[in-house]
Amino acid sequence: MSSPRHWVIVTNQSSGRGRSEAVKQQVAAAMGARGHSFDFIDAVGVEDARKSIDALLVSPRPIDGLLVIGGDGTVHHVVKAMIQSGRHLPIGLIPTGNGNDFARQLRLYGRTIPELIESFTSDAPITIDILEIHDQIALQVISTGFDATVSARARRMPRAIGSLRYVLALLLQLRALSTTRYRFVVNGITREVEATLVAVANGRNYGRGMLISPESINDDGVFEVVVVGPVSRMKLLLLFPRIFSGSHIDHPLVETFQTMNLEIEADTIAEADGEPLLSNPLNHRIRTKQLRTWRMA
Fold first, then answer.
1. Strand order across the 270-272 sheet
2. Which GO terms describe its cellular component (predicted)?
3. Residue 222 maps to which CATH number?
4. DSSP, res 2
C-alpha cells in the first residue's frame, strides 16, 4: 500500500443515468480502507464540474491527485480546466458514462472499483499525449465534417435511445451529405483535399467503441489523421459498419497519416471527444500535450 495521500474526487451526478452516486459510495469506502483522505466535488453536468474544478485548482491546498467519476464529457472538462490552471495533477478515471471511450483506451472500462482504486493508489501514473487546439483539448478524437454533424445531431436526441443515437443520426444526416475542402499544413508542406470527413485521432476509438483509428496509441508523441474522401450515400452506408472493426482504413477512399502537429482549415464544424469544439470555420493548429494518468495492463 502506498503512503496516505489527499485526493479530490469529482462526480458528475448526471453521468450514466445517475450511476455515479452509487459508485461514489464504493469509491469512498475503497479509498478510506487504504488510509487516503479525500474531498468530494458533486457536480450536476459537465459545466458545473468544470466551474468547481476551476475554483479548486486556484486554491493553495495541497492535492496529490484527482479522481473523476463520470464519462468522456466529464473527464474532458476536468482535464481542460486543470491544464488551463497550469497545474499538472495525475487524473484517475472511474467510468460511469455512456461512451467511456477514454476509459477503453486506458483499459479501465469493465474493471471493478477495488481494482481501479488499487491501481490509482499503488501504481505510479504514466504520461500520455492529449491534443491541444488553441485553448481547447481532446483526449481521444477531433471529428470534423460529416462526422461532426452526425455527432451534433445525435447529441440532441433523447438519451433513452442509447447507443442507437449515432446510427439514427447518421441515417437522418445522409440527406445532407456533402464534401468539404480542407487545407492542411503538415511538416511545412501545404496540401488541399476534398473530403467527406476528417478525424484527428489521439486514441483508437470514439462514439462508444467505434475504431476510427485502430493503430493509434496515446503515448507515442504523434497522432493519426483519418481522411475519408468524396463518397456516395450508398458507399458510405457500406463503409460505416467497418468502423467497428477498424477495417475501414483499408478502403481505397480512406487515407491515414501520422504527424506531431497539424494546421487545418475548413469551412465546417468540429467536435472534441463528442463536445462542441470550435465555431465554423475551422482554422487552428493541433499539437500534442502531456497528461499524467493511469492505464491498466
1. 254-259, 223-228, 197-201, 141-145, 270-272, 275-278
2. plasma membrane
3. 2.60.200.40
4. P
Q: Where are the beta strands (DSSP E) in the chain?
A: 6-12, 37-43, 65-70, 91-95, 126-133, 136-138, 141-145, 180-186, 189-195, 197-201, 223-228, 254-259, 261-266, 270-272, 275-278, 282-293
Q: Per the structure block, which three cell numbers stand in for 288?
A: 500534442
Whether the pLDDT of residue 32 is over 80: the answer is yes
For position 41, what pLDDT does the model report? 85
Does residue 72 share a domain with residue 192? no
Residues 275 and 140 in one domain: yes
Please indicate, yes or no, whether residues 155 and 279 belong to a single structural domain of this protein.
yes
Residue 134 is predicted with a pLDDT of: 78
Q: Is residue 131 part of a domain?
A: no
Q: Which domain, by its residues, includes 92? A: 6-124
Q: Are 211 and 205 in contact (CB under 8 A)?
A: yes
- What is the reported pLDDT for 234? 96
Q: Categorise residue 140: left if φ over 0, alpha if ψ from -120 to 50, beta otherwise.
A: alpha
Of the candidates 109, 164, 168, 105, the residue with the CA atom closest to the CA atom of residue 140: 105
Q: Tell me the angle at which helices 20-33 and 113-122 cross, rounded to the nearest 10 degrees.
A: 50
Instruction: Give the side-chain half-sphere CA count within 13 A for 293.
Output: 26
Closest CA to 201 of 213, 219, 193, 214: 213
Alpha carbon distance 247, 251 (integer Å): 8
Tell me what pLDDT residue 47 has: 72
Last residue of a domain, one of 79, 102, 124: 124
Residues 292, 90 contacting (CB under 8 angstroms): yes
Close Cβ partners of 133 (under 8 Å, ≥ 6 residues apart): 142, 272, 277, 278, 284, 285, 286
Query: What confidence category does residue 91 fall into, taking pLDDT thresholds of 50, 70 and 90?
Result: very high
pLDDT at 108 over 70: yes
